[in-house]
Amino acid sequence: MDDFNIKQINLDQIDITDLVNESLSEGHRHISRLLEEYSNGENRFSEEGEALFAVFLKDRIIGIGGLNKDPYLKENSIGRVRRLYVLKEYRKLGAGRGLMDRIIQEARKHYTAIVLNTNNPVADKFYSSLGFSNHPTYLNSTHYLPL
Questions:
Q1: pLDDT tens for residues 56-86?
Q2: Domain named N-acetyltransferase: which ranges (predicted)?
């Protein structure tokens, strides 16, 4: 779908209630944790090399995902994909791929590799299709992509 618009966002000015509610109904807590950690200042995606992005369809947010310095590693050359989620009705239409392309583009400016952690077989297939290796090479990660 060509109507997707991906923007860097600040959660203080954006309502992600639809994403939180749908993700919880699917048994995923990571988007509610995103909101909690952003609100309490634990993770605001505001350090050098960090960013939070949303996928918009017109004025509706249909997906979200962020990039952090990997908090589990002492080196600053590894980024971590965090809190990626796309509303169910927009999956397999290119929203997630576009969001990841934007995250990878940003990561290339700051890191030599990016990592992530998932135990979801559908997510594993998605990340593998983007070129991620699913070998546990880095601490607390299931996938990595050299940049």
A1: 999 899 999 999 999 999 889 999 999 999 9
A2: 4-147
CATH code of residue 122: 3.40.630.30
Token pair belonging to 127: 């990340």
The domain total for the chain is 1
DSSP state of 12: G
Q: Which two tokens stand for residue 45?
A: 């995606």
Q: Do 140 and 117 meet the contact criterion of CB atoms below 8 Å apart? A: yes
With 90 as the cut, is the pLDDT of residue 110 above it? yes
For 38, the token pair is 């952003």
- Alpha-carbon span 128 to 143, nearest angstrom: 8
Q: What pTM, to 2 d.p., does this model score? A: 0.94
